[in-house]
Amino acid sequence: MKQGWFQYFYYNFWCYAIRIISAVYFRIRYNFEEEFPREGKVVLVANHQSFLDPPLIGIGLPRQAHYMARDTLFRGLLGWHISHLNAYPISRDKNPVAGIKETLKRLKHGEAVLIFPEGTRSEDGELQPFHAGIIAVAKRSGAPIVPCAIDGAHRALPRKAFFPLPRKIVVKYGKIITPEEIREYSEEELLNLLSERVAELFYSIRNPKATEKKEV
């Protein structure tokens, strides 16, 4: 999508600032199982632990990311701020289809879009069931999918907390699921695959030694 010079500067300024702050405050660590696509449409699918997830997952990428946010956040200064960080509103109650359409539009323009199929933040940091809405985006967009997992964000900024705590956070990006692979799966199979891939990444963060032994 066409982006003005101010928004380009604004996004990159905050991206750089958050990287420095999170490296010191959260001791954040990023892991990639393979190189993330630097251009072209791509859907990034992740678990959801905290309000910290979108910016912390996004700044780890070698490109700008776009993401859905609850429509009630788009008010006043906060709404202006997150809009300039490539966020766009989705309504869970009134018209959730509009959010899917906007997602498809941004993918059509070659953007990387971050989606949280769990729909809401986890109460305890554990994984939640994926909702089927992601499948419409995956099937119709023709975009590759990159699974992703984040852990530690629920301890840094749990529900009802007003200020983040200095807790270690790890983000791990998985291997690309190609459009060709996506077409081979039924909707139910694809939903299960995405859930499994994110879970594998998540538990490899929680127990890295077990993952190392399995690879050996």
3D architecture notes:
The chain has a seven-stranded mixed beta sheet. The chain has 216 residues and is an alpha/beta fold. It has nine helices and seven strands. The chain starts with a helix and ends with a helix. Helix 4 runs parallel beside helix 5.
| Count of helical stretches | 9
Globular, elongated, flat, extended or rod-shaped: what is the shape? globular
Secondary-structure content class: alpha/beta
Please indicate the percent range of residues in DSSP E strands (runs of 2 or more).
15-25%
Report the major sheet.
7 strands, mixed
Please summarize what this structure is.
The chain has helices at residues 5-25, 53-58, 76-83, 96-108, 133-141, 153-156, 179-184, 187-206, 208-215; strands at 29-32, 42-46, 65-70, 87-90, 112-115, 145-151, 170-173. With 216 residues, the protein is α/β, with parallel strands linked by helices.
